[in-house]
Design brief:
By secondary structure, the chain is an all-alpha fold. Helices cover 70% and strands 0% of the residues. The radius of gyration is 23 Å and the shape is elongated.
Amino acid sequence: AWVYFAPLAIIIVAYSQIVSAVFAHEKQMREQAKKMGVKSLRSEEAQKTSAECRLAKVALTTVSLWFIAWTPYMVINYTGMMNKSLINPLFTIWGSIFAKCNAVYNPIVYAISHPKYRAALEKKLPCLSCAGDDHGSDSVSVTTTQSEQPIT
């Protein structure tokens, strides 16, 4: 049981510390903005989805996917140890494949959650992009454009 619960506990503790560090940093940023007399140090576009929320979603998704991927594998193995008649080879193969696919889930989660990756994905494969998705929420740069008025 320790080969399942120990990694799960380590993952949960590590991601909670990462999220708490980001929350602390965001709090310091807000305090610094107050000292400087500004409403925020970020652009309004970046404020819509704060780094706290984005990181919390990624962490929760990663931990959930790990749990979903490895729990069936653990249940199948413990069932096989307790009552071998309930387990067949096909059953064990699917549990193993599903668990090992967790190595594929993490890069996908991180890549899709990164705005620059999503923008590049939309550029290369427009059929995979989500309509109305805000790609620039992570960048802080602001551009200005000059609109031309029609000459009449």
